[in-house]
Amino acid sequence: MSRIRCILRGIDFKTYIFVFVMIPTCIFGIYLHGQKISYFLRPLWESPPKPFHDIPHYYHENVSMETLCKLHGWGIREFPRRVYDAVLFSNEVDILTLRWQELYPYITQFVLLESNSTFTGIPKPMVFASNRDQFKFVEPRLTYGTIGGRFKKAENPFVEEALQRVALDQLLKIAGITDDDLLIMSDVDEIPSRHTINLLRWCDDIPQVLHLRLKNYLYSFEFLVDNNSWRASVHRYQTGKTRYAHYRQSDEILADAGWHCSFCFRRISEFIFKMKAYSHNDRVRFSHYLNPKRIQRVICKGADLFDMLPEEYTFKEIIGKMGPIPHSYSAVHLPSFLLENADKYKFLLPGNCIRESG
């Protein structure tokens, strides 16, 4: 003890302040903002992925399909391919409506799989089943399946997600998909434009697997993040080879092929549900993130629900995207059904950030 007293006598006042004030403050700061620090330093330990080969996208409503295919370097078919649109469904009723209305003219079979569990093992109601009457317009072309959840809350959410995608493979077979049919692989909120799908079903010699570059929106079509959403893809189906997935499967990507509208919900309760239910639920680091008043403020500001920095691979891109997303007042080149029913879906249009509280 005497040695300890001698050591303490030799420490000046400034050192005491540093040890007992600054160090705990730094530790608390890392606890609060450690995720931000990690994302900001990402370029130091992770290199950007290999660039895609971007295919220019040519389209005008008055240009013939033969000319459009030729502009892309493809031939024209004598008859169009069949097209299957397959999705895993959670609770996105409004976005699913926009998706199916946009794609309806060119889809042979709509395939939807629903579970009674979220990816994080939380029990959920069968939302599509209870709202099925809203989708009578696709009923003759609908293959609907359900899967029971395993409710393993401590498990990595991506395990449950992968199992549901395997089940979707089986549902596609039940739906009658065959070789060289087109298969759209994307989440519900990743919506290809109808003219993109019409182009791919009519053109010959398109890539076996083609990713779609989508305009990336957050909360509504008021907040355009970038043009870099790439996970949606279209496949020329091959029996025994094609597997439903949501990761990179090709280097080919078609530019300006649709819209990705993430967290584009009508009600605050839907935001809260997704924040707790989807595969990245670990981003809800503090309970106040789920406060309805906070969520409403974040939506109208265009800020991040999880108080995170952008997921980029260079310091320039991270710094360039820091802060709220700029407001956009353009409603040009959006899904036609959205504009035709603007009163019902005004929460998705510029200038309507207030959400229903239910």
Automatic annotation (TrEMBL):
| A Pfam family matched in the record | Glyco_transf_17
Sorted alphabetically, which InterPro entries does this protein's record hold?
A: Glyco_trans_17
Record flagged with keyword Transmembrane helix: yes
Q: Which domain of life is it from?
A: Eukaryota
Keywords from the named record = Membrane, Transmembrane, Transmembrane helix
Question: GO cellular component terms?
Answer: membrane
Which biological process, per GO, is one annotated for this protein?
N-acetylglucosamine metabolic process
* Gene Ontology MF term list: beta-1,4-mannosylglycoprotein 4-beta-N-acetylglucosaminyltransferase activity
Q: Which residues cross the membrane?
A: 12-32
Q: Which PANTHER family match?
A: BETA-1,4-MANNOSYL-GLYCOPROTEIN 4-BETA-N-ACETYLGLUCOSAMINYLTRANSFERASE (PTHR12224:SF0), BETA-1,4-MANNOSYL-GLYCOPROTEIN BETA-1,4-N-ACETYLGLUCOSAMINYL-TRANSFERASE (PTHR12224)
Q: What is this protein called?
A: Beta-1,4-mannosyl-glycoprotein 4-beta-N-acetylglucosaminyltransferase
